[in-house]
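Why does residue order matter? Because the sequence determines the fold. Keep that principle in mind as you read this record.
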Amino acid sequence: MIKIAPSLLAADVTKLGKQTEMVKLAGAQYLHLDIMDGHFVPNLSFGPSVVSGLRKVSDLVFDVHLMLSRPDKYIDAFAKAGADIITDKSRYCF
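Structure:
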């Protein structure tokens, strides 16, 4: 079975809760969250507080990709914030 995981990066940051709900209403079961630190990759994105805030308003599966220089320092924080799946993207880059 194919599962679609729309990316939170495509959302308007001023409407994250509403747009997360739109993802669910469109039929998706997963929400993809790229977590970027500005070091491992040049962009910055969301922290655990955003995941925690969205968890309060959504029961979607949160698929969190840690694109961080030190993902090991943040795994527990994202798990506590409500991430369902956590992937350390640094392990897949050469």
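The longest helix spans residues 16-25.
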